[in-house]
Known about the structure:
The chain is α/β, with parallel strands linked by helices.
Amino acid sequence: MSVVVIGAGPAGIRAVETLLAHGLRPVWIDEAPRAGGQIYRRPPANFRRKPGVLYGFEAAKARRLHAAADAAGQLADYRPSTLVWDIAESRLQTAGSDGLGTVPFDAMILATGATDRVIPFPGWTLPGVFSLGGAQIALKAQGVAIGRHCVFFGTSPLLYLVAYQYAKAGAHVAAVLDTSPAAAKRRALPRLLAGGSALAKGLYYVAWLKARGIAMASGIEPMEILGTSRASGLRYRNSAGDECEVVSDALAFGFGLRSETQLADLAGCRFRFDPLNRQWLPETDEDGRALDPGNIYLAGDGVGISGADAAELAGERAALALLADRAIAVPDARRRWIARRLARAKDFRQGLEQAFPFPEYLARRIADGTVLCRCEVVTAGALRASVAGIGADELNRAKAYSRVGMGRCQGRVCGAAAAEVLAAALGGEIASVGRLRSQPPVKPLPMGLL
Ligand SMILES: Cc1cc2nc3c(=O)[nH]c(=O)nc-3n(C[C@H](O)[C@H](O)[C@H](O)COP(=O)(O)OP(=O)(O)OC[C@H]3O[C@@H](n4cnc5c(N)ncnc54)[C@H](O)[C@@H]3O)c2cc1C
């Protein structure tokens, strides 16, 4: 039986480890050169920064997971630096350093993780503007800061973590500006308590930043990234409604994460709208089995954001389900234990959503002249015109008319905001405009390979 696992983050690593422990040798694919995924991303092998510096409180976990990945990589058919760009008829299409390839499979675990969720603003396409995840990758993978004076804004736990990591690494953090009001965090506290040490770490980052006199504000509304040929600061409204400006030569922003679901879509998975994630997600049963087709399993942030610890558990759970479906004996007590732990993680996740709500009002009122889709240079106004012009009442129709989401990123960057803008233009809920259908290649391919 040929089993494939896509993704070498916490979910993929634990899935592969579990399959190996039960006698299967999966093909294991990840586009990154080294296993670890987003949170435990590793710098190139010749870099010498220590895990304590790279991963802070998570250093011990990172070491354990990297060791597990390296051991599993020796035993599995591990293919790093390999992108899966299409799936059809139980075959993957890949692109790697040795060219294009095809991998047939009988069963597959998708552990494709997540990326930043962004809302476009005037100025967001200027040089010097990054997503929070992008800013973190620059620091973690390459040991470089995005600028000398950095402003971080948006909302999510990642906002405070990235600001802390930058300040700790010696960068000047000019301000940390959160769109979520302080009251939302206070209200979420009872639910956040389910997170245990994760809550404690979050509070520590905030206290650490405050103790160093770094300007912080909650309940802000970003208005415009300033600058002409490159970013020079941010204009925003504070919680009292006053207009303020902060000067910086680099900014990073983000509003939580969105699951990477393109491969699940191409594989033919059924989707449902998930109000917690404000996203259409592949439908699975409680063990991570896709409801359709029957040979696909999903785990980790790719099927709803739940964090790295939950991703590890979900990866193991999906592998156990795959094994059980092939009449390979698996410990039932372990499956029940994982289910209990994941239920607790869901409580914490709901608390985070309450503390750092996605400011959909900002997405819905993006100014007509603001570039929404940067690949195809489509403005929010052009998308709205697709409603007025052809009565586009669904995202794919609006895409065909306006070209929003038709470029290189395939809507991975602009899709979430485009759905909000379209729903607002139609006066409906975001779920009502559907989701962008995925198209291969899911990411750009070098022409040389084709
Ligand atoms: C940019 C970013 C930074 C983050 N930083 C932190 C942090 O510092 N602390 C924290 O607690 N949480 C962080 N998170 C959240 C955390 O990383 C996740 O909760 C956790 O990593 C989820 O694990 P996962 O295995 O589901 O996915 P991931 O760790 O995201 O792993 C998914 C893997 O799938 C691979 N992949 C995806 N698509 C393809 C494809 N088409 N072909 C081949 N390979 C593919 C990716 O290369 C990646 O290695 C971050 C998330 C993001 C997006």
